[in-house]
Amino acid sequence: MRKSLERRLQFILWVLVFAIAILFVDFIICIAVMYKSSDINYTDASEIMDGLSYNTGEYVLSDEESTQLQKNNEFAFLLDNNGNIIWYENMPESLKKSKYTLQDVAKFTRYYLDDYPVRTYTVSEDRLLIVGKLNSDIWKYTLEYDANNVLTLLEMTPLLFIFNMILFIFVSIRMYKSRQRRIEEERVEWIAGVSHDIRTPLAIILGNAQMIPKESSMDEIKRKSEIIESQGLRIRGLVENLNITSKLDFGTKRFEKSKVCLSTLIRKIVSNMINSLDIDAQSKYDFELKIDNELQKYEISLNEELFERAVINLLNNSFRHNPDGCQVYINLYKENKKVVLEIGDSGSGVSAEILQRLNQNAYAETKSVGKHGLGLKIVKKVVEFHRWKVIFTNGKNAGFVCRMEIK
C-alpha cells in the first residue's frame, strides 16, 4: 500500500513539475514572440531632423540619412501646420497629396496612411514628421481597455493558472489510471489463465497419487505417492492464493459481502479442513474449537470466499510449520465490546523479528518473509478488505497465534 501511494505521489509530482515547465516555456515563448514582433525598427526622428537642412528655399536630407531610409525600406515627409508637404524622401506617388486635412492626420496618426504603417512625430510647434514603412506586412492596431477590466483580468490570472493546472493533472491522472487499469486487468486475466491451465494436470496428478496406494502394497511407493499428493495439494493452495491476491491487489473482481452466522461458517470451514486431511495427519493434530455462547447466533456481513481462504491459510500455516503435529485451536469470543477470532497452535512459533515484520502495516505489499509468505499476506489483505484489525503473536507458552478483531 505504501509503495503504491509513493508511486502515485511521485507521478502527481512529476505531472505537476511537467505542467509548470510547459507553462513556463509557453510563457517565455509568448514573451519572446511578442517582443520580436513588437520590435519594428524605425529610423529615429531626431536623426532625420539632424540630417535635414534648409538650403535655398528647400529642405535637403544628408546622404547618410537618405541611405539609412533606403536601407530600412522607409519613406519620410514633413507637414506644416496647414497640412502641406514641405519635404519628402522615398515617398510613394500615391501619398503625394497637395494637402493633408486634420481628418487625414488623425487617421494615420493611429493607424495607417493608406496601406503603409507609419509613425508620427512632433518635431516643432508647426511641423509633423511622418516616417513610414514601404512594406505592408506590419500589423498595427491601437487597443483600448477599461482599466477595471484589466485589473479583473490580472486578478483572474492566478485562478486561471490554477484551473489549467488542475485540469492538466486531472486528465493526466485519468489517463494514467486508465492505462494502469488495462495493465492490471491483463495481468489478472493472465494469472487466471495460467491457474486454469495448471488445475487440469494437477487434478490428474492428485487423482493418480490417491489411486497408487490402493493398487500397490509396497510401503515405499505408498510413501512417495503421499509426498506427491501433499505437494500437489500445496500447489493447488498456492494457485488459489495467487488468484485471490491478484484480484484483491488489482480490484478487478468485486467481492460482495453477505450477512452470515459466523459460528456456523467457522464450523463448516474447520470441518471441511479436517476431513480433507488423511488419517495420519488427523492423528498428528488435535483440533479445539471454542465459541462463546453469546456468539453462537452472531451474524456479521462479510465475503465468505475471502474469509474461508484466510482461515484455511492460517490452518495450513500451522500444518506446514509443525509437520510432527501440534494442537490447533480456534476461539471466537467477546472481549469487552470487541468480537475476537483467534486461530493459533502450540507449535514452534516464530522469531521476534518475523513477528515485527508480519505486524507492519505494509507487510501485505512487501516481499515474503521466510516461509511465512503469500498465505499470511492474504490473511492481512482479507482483514484490510473487511476493515478489521489483525495482530500476529506467539502463544503464552509456545506456538503461533493470529488474533482478528472483527468488530
UniProtKB/TrEMBL annotation:
This is histidine kinase. The keyword Phosphoprotein applies. It is found in: Membrane. GO terms for molecular function: phosphoprotein phosphatase activity; phosphorelay sensor kinase activity. The keyword Phosphoprotein applies. One of its GO terms (cellular component) is plasma membrane. Gene3D superfamilies: 1.10.287.130, Histidine kinase-like ATPase, C-terminal domain. Its EC number is 2.7.13.3. Keywords: Kinase, Phosphoprotein, Transferase, Two-component regulatory system. PANTHER family: PHOSPHATE REGULON SENSOR PROTEIN PHOR. It holds the Pfam family HisKA. InterPro entries: BphY/WalK/GraS-like (IPR050351), HATPase_C_sf (IPR036890), HATPase_dom (IPR003594), His_kinase_dom (IPR005467), HisK_dim/P_dom (IPR003661), HisK_dim/P_sf (IPR036097). It is an enzyme of class 2 (transferase).
